[in-house]
Write a structure and sequence with these properties.
It is built from three helices and seven strands, in the order βααββββββα. Strands 1-2-3-4 form a four-stranded antiparallel sheet, with no helix packed on it. It has a three-stranded antiparallel sheet with strand order 5-6-7. The longest helix is centred in the first third of the chain and has 34 residues. The two termini are about 25 Å apart. By secondary structure, the chain is an alpha+beta fold. The chain is about 40% helix and about 25% strand. A hairpin with a 2-residue loop joins β3 and β4. The chain is elongated and about 80 Å long.
Length: about 160
């Protein structure tokens, strides 16, 4: 079996959100305990000091939901089958079920989105993951070798005589 997804997915899905919201909480607590609450009692306009952390929580939460929390934990290639592991469940998926491979390069983290022919009960209509092995200063300008390989494999499957 060949691992297609990055081992950094755990960091992005589990550790980074805790760091993000933890930093915001520490910032807000420092503001409150550094006489911010006492000043705000005298001047209600002082509560605007908590507006920035509040907005950071909302925007960060929406971005994490859209870009990070929908990533699969692990994606493996086993012959003509994808093994997708997410939230402790493993799903096998034939490569023939993939109708589109989309690779984003100018995002951090880079991601590959596989659009499925039929909606799976566990996976939905898409499988998203961070590709393994994207390193180097100019890797953002190159096509993902994993995405390119998947496109070639799927194309070869479609060209096979039935």
């Amino acid at each position: 079996m060949q691992r297609l997804s990055s081992s950094k997915t755990f960091f992005y899905k589990r550790i980074f959100p805790v760091m993000w919201f933890g930093f915001i909480a520490v910032f807000a607590l420092i503001w409150i305990f550094d006489n911010g609450a006492a000043r705000a009692a005298a001047d209600p306009g002082q509560w605007m000091g908590l507006f920035v952390p509040f907005v950071m929580c909302i925007v960060g939460g929406l971005l994490l939901k859209r870009l990070i929390f929908n990533l699969s934990d692990e994606v493996w290639l086993e012959g003509d089958t994808l093994v997708v592991k997410n939230r402790g469940e493993s799903t096998r998926l034939a490569l023939g079920e993939v109708i589109n491979v989309n690779s984003t390069t100018m995002t951090n983290p880079p991601r590959i989105t596989l659009t499925l022919r039929t909606e799976s009960s566990r996976l939905g209509s898409e499988v998203n993951f961070i590709p393994a092995g994207m390193r180097g200063p100019f890797s953002a300008f190159k096509a993902s070798p994993i995405a390119t390989d998947l496109i070639r494999r799927i194309d070869a499957l479609r060209r096979r005589p039935a």
